Amino acid sequence: MTSPLVVAVVLNWNLPEDTIRCVRSLLTGDYAALRVLIVDNGSSDDSLAIFARELPAISVLAMGMNRFYAGGNNAGIAEALRWDAEWVLVLNNDTVAAPDMLSRLVEAGIRCGAAAVAPLIYRLDAPDTVWDAGTVWPRWRPLPRRATPQASAYPVDLATGCALLLRRDALDRVGALDERYVMYYEDADLCLRLRQAGECVVVEPQARLWHAAGQSAALASVRSARQWAHYRLRFYRQHAPWPWRPVTLAAVTAHVLWRSLSAVCHGRRESARAYGQGCIDGWRDAPRARP
């Protein structure tokens, strides 16, 4: 049987060395029906020239401006669908894939009838330490909790956009990332929309990925703090279930304000203000149905 075409979308913003390492880990893998697309999100360095020199056979979509995580990945997803991809792999550039990661993800997606499949993600600086195993959010809980890794593919409610294999027809049904999130929680929102549409999201623990957490966000930490707070509040205002919603929103608001207070105590006043302003933004940003 012919393997389905997978297009891997790798978003770059001023980290060309990380992107090259990520792409090369995919290219040395065992999945033949793969195309890779680098989306350059308006880098201000010489990323494009480096890609042309180091990865001349790889397609690069130059955005010309920073459309952030959701906008940049959506541009890549749209291009992948124009290439007739049956699956789209959204992959952070600060990752390294095991040689069999993609083949295991595709096999699990087909076997489980899943709309989205994530690998088990380890820390790059501590290769045996799990960084993310998915998240479950039973409706009777006010907040989600981390999933416990299993021996074989298991269902989750939320999976990180660090690495997420998405089925084409599911994207056609529910749409791609909601760009109103800009950065942070757009992956969680997509997973919940898939679940609400009756689709399945799974983690395949035999598919392994290593992640150098926070490389891109570290380039703009104060802005990242404000965006994280803003979209954390927005996500829970949109998705927290009743009757738990007041408890959930109180807990989330308290968590953001605790981050702000902690930043003050550590002398990071700009970050403290960013968390506080993000909290205000999150309460002002009224969630609405996705267009």
Please give a quick description of this structure:
By secondary structure, this protein is α/β, with parallel strands linked by helices. It contains ten helices and twelve strands.
Tags for this model:
globular, ten-stranded mixed sheet, alpha/beta, 291 residues
Write a structural description:
The chain has 291 residues and is α/β, with parallel strands linked by helices. Helix content is 43%, strand content 22%. Strands 1, 2, 3, 4, 5, 6, 7, 10, 11 and 12 form a 10-stranded mixed beta sheet that branches. Strands 8-9 form a two-stranded antiparallel ribbon. A hairpin with an 8-residue loop joins strand 8 (135-136) and strand 9 (145-146). Helix 8 (221-239) runs antiparallel to helix 9 (245-265), helix 8 (221-239) runs parallel beside helix 10 and helix 9 packs antiparallel against helix 10 (269-284). The chain is globular and about 50 Å long. The protein starts with 5 loop residues before the first strand and ends in a 7-residue tail after the last helix.
Mean pLDDT: 94
Low-confidence runs of at least 5 consecutive residues:
216-220
What percent of the residues sit in helical stretches (DSSP H or I)?
A: 40-55%
Number of strands: 12
The total count of helices amounts to 10
Distance, first to last CA:
38 Å
Rg from C-alpha positions?
19 Å
Strand content: 15-25%
Please trace the helix and strand order, writing H or E for each element.
Answer: EHEHEHEEHEEEEEEHHEHHHH
Largest sheet: 10 strands, mixed
> Which structural category fits the helices and strands?
alpha/beta
Mass-distribution shape: globular
